[in-house]
Amino acid sequence: MKILKMAVTAFAVMAIGTSAFADEAYDIVKKSTNLQAPETSETVMILQNIETNGTVETRQMDQHGREVNGLVSTVFDFKSPASVKGTRVLQSEKSGREDDRWIYMPSLRQVRRIPMGERYKQFVGCEFTYNDMGIRDVEDDTHEMLEKDVKLTIQSKSYTCWKIKSVPKKKSDVEYSYRIQYIDKETYLPAKVEFFDKKDQKKLMKTYTTEDWMYFKANKSGKTYTLRTKARIVNNISGRQSYLEIKNPKFDEGVSPAYFTQQFLSTGKAK
Predict the structure, then answer these.
(1) How far is Cα 89 from Cα 110, in angstroms, rounded to an integer?
(2) Residue 7, φ and ψ in degrees, nearest 5
(3) Spatial CB neighbours of 59, under 8 Å, sequence gap ≥ 6
(4) Which of 95, 106, 233, 236 is the most buried (most CB within 10 A)?
(5) Is the pLDDT of residue 98 over 50?
(6) Residue 267, Cβ neighbours under 10 Å: how many?
(7) The pTM is what?
């Protein structure tokens, strides 16, 4: 009986410890995904697709965003090159249901809703997916603390991170089996995220890195936001990369609601 009691006690301690780590990981990811968003935002986004032979294609798009009652809507308006000019994508967060995503492609001259089954696909031909261009809800995954003090240097930035494993509850919604997130302790930004293959869960499929960030103070509101200014995603299977740079940020300066409509997607006019 004594041996049995010791075994039960040991199991209970282990279970409590595991639960505590799980709760801590959940809280960290929740804070990471709930960083303060500006009421409105406008930026220029430079996207480079880098092929394995070194060829680089540069795309430019305008981004407009707004936050209403804690829910963020974002529209991406491609300006160049000619092959994607006029393409527009609208993403709108919804409370209690799946986010809405719509795309307008000039070649088809129609606005089309992007169904859940396609959101793991490439975002207008780059290595970022439609899922990557949004923020995944903390409740969509289970989270496990792997390490509490991981040092990383990415380009010129040094990070001290929590290393957390996040496993999707609904695997059909994503293109990977799980993620390993390295969340920076200072900013709560994801310094690095590793995505692992569905078929071979030990196989690294793609890697995201935050290469630069800044504290940005909005001129009108005076509020300070944490802004990722440079990010990269590498396809570890093909070797192809996409690099994203944010320029000319304007926060809390007002954005017309007309940008976040299907009419804007099809016409490019918000007035």
Answers:
(1) 12
(2) -65, -45
(3) 46, 47, 48, 49, 78, 80, 81, 84, 124, 126
(4) 233
(5) yes
(6) 12
(7) 0.86
Q: What angle do CA 101, 116, 22 make, to 5 degrees?
A: 105
Token pair, residue 176, equals: 């990977």
CA distances (Å), origin 249, targets 41, 64, 181, 211? 7, 10, 26, 17
Give pLDDT tens digits for 64-80. Answer: 999 988 888 999 999 99
Cα four-point dihedral sign 95, 97, 99, 102: negative
CA distance 188 to 31: 7
Using CA atoms, how far apart are residues 195 and 205, in angstroms rounded to an integer?
6
Backbone phi and psi for residue 265, each to the nearest 5 degrees, phi listed first = -55, -40
Alpha-carbon gap, residue 241 to 230, rounded angstroms: 13
Residue pointed to by tokens 């719509």: 102
Contact between 56 and 270 (Cβ < 8 Å): no
Residue type (1 letter), 257? P
pLDDT digits (tens, 9 = 90+) for 176-228: 999 999 999 999 999 999 999 999 999 999 999 999 999 999 999 999 999 99
